[in-house]
Structure formats: C-alpha cells, structure tokens
Specification:
Layout lengths: L6 E5 L6 H11 L3 E3 L2 E3 L13 E3 L2 H9 L3 E8 L2 E6 H9 L3 E5 L2 H11 L3 E7 L3 H11 L4 H15 L7 E4 L3 H17 L1
Parallel strand pairs: 1-7, 1-8, 2-7, 3-4, 8-9
Antiparallel strand pairs: 3-6, 5-6
Adenosine-5'-diphosphate (ADP) binds next to helix 1, helix 5 and helix 7.
Subcellular location: Cytoplasm
EC number: 2.7.4.8
Pfam families: Guanylate_kin
C-alpha cells in the first residue's frame, strides 16, 4: 500500500473554486482521480453517496476514527466531521492512478506532511473576501448561517497560504484553469 502514484491536494477557503478547478483537471488528466471524502453532513441537492462524498452518520464516523481508517480527519464545522479514508488512496493507486483531493487547509497541509515530495499542495486564492462572499451566495447551496461560518473560517485559513507549494489566483476562470493545468501537468510528468 502507498507505494505508487502521486497526490495533488487542492485546499482553500470554501467558495474559492477548488471543486471547479479540480473538475476541470479531472477531465484533462484521466489518470487523476478524485479522493471521495467521508462526511457526517447531510447530502445537498444532487449529491450522491460514493460519488461526491461517503455520507456517514456521526456514530459511524467515530467508529471509523477508532478503527484508524482515516489518513486525516477533522471536525471542520462544529459537529460536522470530514476525513480522508486510507482506502481511497490505495483504491486509486492500485488502479494505477494519481489522487486529487479537495479538502480544507488544515487537512491539506496534514496530507502534505504525510506524503512529502510525492504530493503537490495547491492553495486556491480569491482576490478579496468580498468576492468569496459573492461566490458563496451565488452558488446558492448554503444558508446565511453556513455562509457566515465559512467566511469566519476563511480568514484563519488564508494565513496558512505561505505553507503551500503553489498558489493559484482564481479570478478569471479560464486563465486559472490554464495555469492549474500547467502546474499539475509538470508535477505529474516529473
Ligand atoms: N480535512 C478535511 N476537510 C475536508 C474533507 N473533505 C472536504 N473537506 C472540507 O470541508 C469543508 C466543507 O465542505 P463542504 O460542506 O462540501 O463545502 P464547500 O467547500 O462549501 O463546498 C471544505 O473546506 C472542504 O474542503 C476531508 O476529507 N478532510
Ligand atoms: N473564477 C471564477 N469566477 C467566477 N465564479 C467562479 C469562479 N470559480 C468558481 N466560481 C463559482 O464560485 C462558486 C464556488 O466555487 P466552488 O468550486 O464550489 O468552490 P469550493 O469548492 O472551493 O467551495 C461556484 O458557484 C462556482 O461556479
């Protein structure tokens, strides 16, 4: 286990555009496959178990923590767990792929520490908190309370930007997609 493949970690405050950029990359690099996180939050809209997340009850999540099934996990928002299952990385590597993660800043830096040079840690940045707020509202998936929670967390997360290998400014989407493809392509080919 864990003897092959690379890892590309995308972290940023919620609403910065991680999912948008990761989805673009997954189409461009077929060997790059998405690590499906586990969460104890409820599915939103069209989200499906085993595709967007593994949706677990808080009890099941805690049982799996006890069983050491997670590479990293966190209570990202009060009462809501998120984590990366060890089995996700082995599933993708065993199939000959590279792993792409869309996770929060603390989780991303923990994975980078764990995997070292085998991993590229990318921080996705927006030009201002106002733009972040506009994107969170524009996405139309979160209540006012959830938006406030995410903005409060964003302030803290942005302080850790210097710890990442690469920073991508997601202002113009086409330009950010091109930049991210170049950076990730170079890493996967090296
Ligand atoms: N540590 C950690 N954070 C995660 C994981 N999966 C998702 N997250 C983060 O949890 C936060 C909430 O995710 P989600 O509710 O899907 O919301 P969104 O980022 O607003 O789309 C985001 O910052 C995600 O990046 C994981 O496996 N581990
Ligand atoms: N460069 C961009 N310009 C304008 N809107 C964007 C851009 N990138 C992403 N968005 C939009 O912003 C919202 C948040 O993006 P998303 O990828 O869900 O963020 P994250 O995964 O980081 O929470 C979505 O509605 C998305 O379509």
């Amino acid at each position: 286990m864990f003897s092959k493949g690379k890892l590309v970690i995308f972290s940023a405050p919620s609403g910065s555009g991680k999912s948008t950029l990761v989805n673009h990359l997954l189409k461009e690099y077929p060997k790059l496959q998405f690590s499906i996180s586990a969460t104890s939050r409820a599915p939103r809209g069209e989200e499906k178990h085993g595709e967007h997340y593994y949706f677990l009850s808080p009890e099941e999540f805690r049982t799996r923590i006890e069983a050491a099934e997670f590479l990293e996990w966190e209570e990202v928002y009060e009462g809501t767990y998120y984590g990366t299952l060890r089995s996700e990385v082995s599933r993708i590597w065993d199939a000959g792929g590279h792993v792409a993660f869309d996770i929060d800043v603390v989780g991303g830096l923990n994975l980078k520490k764990h995997f070292g040079k085998r991993a590229l840690a990318v921080y996705v940045k927006v030009a201002s908190m106002e733009i972040l707020e506009q994107r969170l509202r524009g996405r139309g998936t979160d209540s006012e309370e959830k938006i406030a929670q995410r903005l409060a967390k964003a302030e803290e997360e942005s302080l850790r930007e210097p710890e990442f290998d690469t920073v991508i400014l997601n202002d113009d989407l086409d330009r950010a997609c091109t930049e991210v493809s170049e950076v990730v392509g170079a890493f996967l080919n090296q």
